[in-house]
Design brief:
Blueprint (H helix, E strand, L loop, with lengths): L9 E3 L2 E3 L12 H11 L3 H8 L4 H12 L7 E4 L5 H8 L5 E5 L2 H8 L6 E4 L14 E7 L12 H6 L1 E12 H6 L1 H11 L3 E10 L8 E9 L1
Parallel strand pairs: 3-4, 3-6, 4-5, 6-7
Antiparallel strand pairs: 1-2, 7-9, 8-9
Helix pairs in contact: 3-4
Length: 222
C-alpha cells in the first residue's frame, strides 16, 4: 500500500480520528506490529476500506472465483485483519471461511462480520499455523506480504495447509513486489514444482491514492 495519511486529523461524521496508515511501513518487530494494529483496528475499515478505497479484497476474491474453486471448498483468509477479505470472499459465494491474524483486536472486528467459521491468532513468521495439513481448497493472502510484516518464506507453511491442487491467491502492492524477495520466492517454488502459476493481474491497490497499484497472483499447489 502507498500514500500519506498517517496521524492526519480527519473530520468524518463530525469526529476527529487518528490515522495509522503510514506508520505501518515503519514497523520492524512483531511486538511493534501487534501494538500498531491493536490501535488501528477501530478505524481500519474507515481509513483503508472507505477513504483509501482498498480494492485488493474484491480483486483477490474475483480471481479465486475465476480460477474455478467450488463454492463449498474451505478457504483460509491468511492475515484476515478486520475481515475485509472475508466479506469479499463471502460476497463471491464462499461459505466456509476461516481467518487468522496476528492481532486479537483485528480478529475481534473480523468476528463481527459474520463471514468466518473460525478465527485464530497466528504469527506467520513463526509457523506452524494451527491448521491441519492439506485441509483448505484455497488460501488468500491479501495485503499480507509487505515491508516489516510477513516475509515471503511464510508461504511454505501456507502451502502445507492447502490440499493438493489447492489455490494460493496473493494480493500485494507494487513497492514490495519490486523489492524482489517476493518474486524470487515464487520463482523458487515454481522451479521446484511446488506451485504452478494460474494467473496474475496488475491493477488498483488503493483506488483513492494516486499511483497506488498492485498485483494479484493465483497459483495452484503442485
Amino acid at each position: 500500500m502507498t500514500g500519506r495519511n498517517d496521524h492526519n486529523v480527519n473530520n468524518h461524521g463530525g469526529n476527529r480520528q487518528k490515522r495509522y496508515f503510514d506508520k505501518a511501513y515503519e514497523l520492524r518487530t512483531t511486538e511493534e506490529t501487534r501494538r500498531h494494529y491493536a490501535e488501528w483496528a477501530e478505524v481500519y475499515d474507515l481509513e483503508i476500506g472507505e477513504e483509501k478505497g482498498y480494492r485488493q479484497p474484491e480483486r483477490c476474491a474475483r480471481a479465486l472465483q475465476a480460477a474455478g474453486l467450488e463454492a463449498n471448498a474451505p478457504v483460509l483468509d491468511v492475515g484476515c485483519g478486520t475481515g475485509l477479505s472475508g466479506r469479499a470472499l463471502a460476497a463471491a459465494g464462499y461459505a466456509t471461511i476461516d481467518g487468522c491474524d496476528l492481532s486479537p483486536e483485528m480478529l475481534a472486528k473480523a468476528e463481527t462480520t459474520g463471514a468466518y467459521r473460525r478465527l485464530f491468532e497466528a504469527d506467520l513468521n513463526h509457523p506452524p499455523l494451527e491448521a491441519p495439513d492439506g485441509h483448505y481448497g484455497a488460501a488468500t493472502c491479501v495485503g499480507v506480504f509487505s515491508f516489516g510484516h510477513v516475509q515471503p518464506d511464510a508461504i511454505d507453511d501456507i502451502l502445507r495447509v492447502l490440499r493438493p491442487g489447492g489455490y494460493l491467491v496473493i494480493g500485494l502492492n507494487d513497492h514490495f513486489y519490486e523489492e524482489g524477495s517476493f518474486p524470487a520466492k515464487l520463482q523458487a517454488l515454481e522451479t521446484a514444482g511446488l506451485l504452478t502459476l494460474v494467473n496474475k493481474e496488475h491493477g488498483a491497490h488503493l483506488e483513492n491514492v494516486e499511483g497506488s497499484t498492485g498485483w494479484v497472483f493465483v497459483h495452484r499447489k503442485g
